[in-house]
Amino acid sequence: MKTNDIILQTVTKVTLFVIILFSIYLFFTGHYHPGGGFIGGLMSSGAIVLLLLAYDIKTVTAILPVDYKKMIGAGLLFSAGTGTGALIAGKPFLTHAYTYVSLPLLGKTSLHTAVLFDTGVFLVVIGVTMTIIQTIGESE
Amino acid sequence: MSNLLIMPILIPLFTGIILIFFANSIKVQRYISGFSALLAIAVSAVLATQVYNDGIQTMNVSNWEAPFGITLVSDMLSALLVLTTSVIAAACLFYSFRSIGEDREKFYYYSIFNFLIVGVNGAFTTGDIFNLFVFFEVMLMASYVLLVLGGTKIQLRESIKYILVNVISSALFVISVAFLYSVVGTLNMAHISVRIAEAGNHGILTVIAVLFLIVFGLKGAIFPLYFWLPGSYYAPPAPVMALFGALLTKVGVYSIIRTYTLFFPHDIFTHDLLQVLSILTIVAGVIGAIAFNDIKKIIIYNIIIAVGVILFGVSIMTKESMTGSVFYLIHDMVIKAALFLIIGIIAKLAGTADLRKMGGLINKYPGLGWTFFIAALALAGIPPLSGFVGKLLIVRSGFESASFWGSGIVLMSSLFVLFSVMKIFMGAFWGSERAFKDEEKVPVKGLLAAPAILTAIAVLYGLGTEAIYPVISLAAETLTNPDIYINAVLKE
To answer: Does the keyword Transmembrane apply (chain A) (predicted)?
Structure first.
């Protein structure tokens, strides 16, 4: 008899977005409050793992057609590229720049190149976690 | 302020990242990594000349002043080691093109290869003790993958041992850094040196010095801690073995040199301990080198002998012995890479690593035979070749500081080194043709190019001693006089 996961799958659909939102919140709040790229990325991949638990690998790759190994590469490029950008400006490696901008809705906001570096961390963490889980899950 | 000294780290880093995107196209991977290896040699040569002309180069990463941020420091020793690393990496890379095989190349071989070089170059360049730990881990992670890539039975077994040992030694490294941090309250190497000099001769500092010796001794294979090395280095294919043999243990040796000359230069107990251990290391290596009839095992035990010789020079702590150690360190990196690559070719031709089952290679492969012969003589330190000057300086300063036993054992070890490599030469190249009598001649020219160039570099290094001597003695000067290093970093 085939088991029916309707409750699990419906709850997943709702919870998934809450988890993703929380991870994005953690990611952006990292400069002033506990959080940052690492925990944000880990929680995002936690959301995808929940999706993997509720559905199977094929469905999830159909929903999210991402090559996670390339995602690791992209994240590394983000982080290393941010550092190298400082070289072009004639400063030592990894020197960061920031500025305050008045944005509509958000008001006075600081934009910092450290966020770009953190984006790299975020992508690498998701890429590594998902590569590990998918590789182990797929191998017989 | 100069950004040049980070280039030997950044070039392989970006190469490694970009190669992730070209996992399926082996041709593109080869072109990119070959080009970047040559570029890295050029950049590190420029860096070495800059350090020679303008003194120690420092760079405060992120523009934070010296003790507060991470500082990268390139003195003559690290610039020379980075240059040597780049040359060896290029040689192993071009050798890999012809020997490593598609199965490995498709699974990120060249990417991981470049990340290993990032770790090694970073460890040589950093001026921060925790950053050194991080670069150690970058290097070790890459080496785990290179060791296991391919997944044969022996590789799987040996990587378990290798990873286990290195995880334990890394944990010990963190513990030692934690102890040191709680005593001196800083992580910048130059600043640590200043603080330790202020604190004077405390017992706890001696304990930390011995802990560091245990940690780096595990990485660099000194006497009671070398037990993992012969098995682990036996498993991977030849170019990986050459990378490991030439670079990984030498990073441990470099770290011992750096910490013992910069942090603990006045501690007599630790230097006596280092001296005793280095002599025992030589003895243990010699016993292994003459005991085996397996060509890979013989060269592997020769790594251990060389580590002992270099550290014996360091433990004497005079300028002459330091110069000798630096001379020998660079010579040994180049010649070990050359020997491992040649051994790889021999084992491939004979289809076995057992010396008793091969013979008569000189008839079909004279080029290979004479390259090996020259490399073997250079390893033993026959006068016009590269191993001579370093050992001469070490032995002479050993006799001057009344370490007669140690110097005598270093001299005796040369004899046994020569015996062990000549055993390979006579066994594999002389005698009647055996294992592969009926086969046709296999073309080895493409494979032989890389080790032949390395051997040529070693020969030139020996012949051009006069020209290189001022460079090496500049490196040794920073080691015997840590104030030069401290002033360059802290700008006082």
So the answer is: yes
Q: Say whether A39 sits in a helix, a strand or coil.
A: helix
CB–CB of B440/B398 below 8 Å?
A: no
Supply the range of the domain harboring residue B329. Answer: 3-490
* DSSP code, position A137: H
Distance CA A82, CA A93 (A): 9
Exposure class string for B206-242: b at 16+ Cβ within 10 A, else e: bebbbbbbebbbbbbbbbebbebbbebbbbbbbbbbb
Q: Are A95 and B17 in contact (CB < 8 Å)?
A: no
Q: Which of A73, A76, A92 sits opposite B62 (nearest CB)?
A: A92
Rounded to an integer, what distance in angstroms lies between the CA atom of residue B347 and that of residue B370? 16
Residues of B with CB under 8 A from a CB of A: 1, 3, 6, 10, 13-14, 17-18, 20-21, 23, 59-63
Q: For residue B20, which residues of chain A lie inside 8 Å, CB to CB? A: 69-70, 72-73, 76
Is residue A92 within 8 angstroms of chain B, CB to CB? yes
Q: Which of residues 98-137 of A touch B (CB under 8 A)?
A: none
Integer-rounded Cα radius of gyration of chain B: 22
Residue that is written with structure tokens 């020998």 in the block: B328
Inter-chain CB proximity A93 and B17 less than 8 Å = no
Binary contact (A69, B62; C-beta < 8 A): no
CB contacts < 8 A, A to B, total 39
- pLDDT given at position B335: 95
- HSE, side-chain direction, 13 A CA sphere, residue B208: 22
Query: Strand B57-60 vs strand A107-112: parallel, antiparallel, or unpaired?
Result: unpaired
A96 Cβ under 8 Å from any chain B Cβ: yes
Residue B32, pLDDT score: 95
Per the structure, how many domains does chain B have? 1
- 3-class DSSP state for residue A110? strand
Structure tokens, B29: 């991977």
Q: Convert the pLDDT of each residue in A65-116 to its tens digit.
A: 999 999 999 999 999 999 898 888 888 888 888 878 788 877 787 888 889 9
Per-residue confidence (pLDDT) for residue B416, from 0 to 100: 94
Distance, first Cα to last Cα, chain B: 16
Q: Which of residues 41-80 of A touch B (CB under 8 A)?
A: 69-70, 72-73, 76-77, 80
A92 secondary structure, DSSP code: P
The per-residue pLDDT for range B174-183, each reduced to its tens digit, is 999 999 999 9
Q: Which residues are paired to B188 by β-bridges?
A: B128
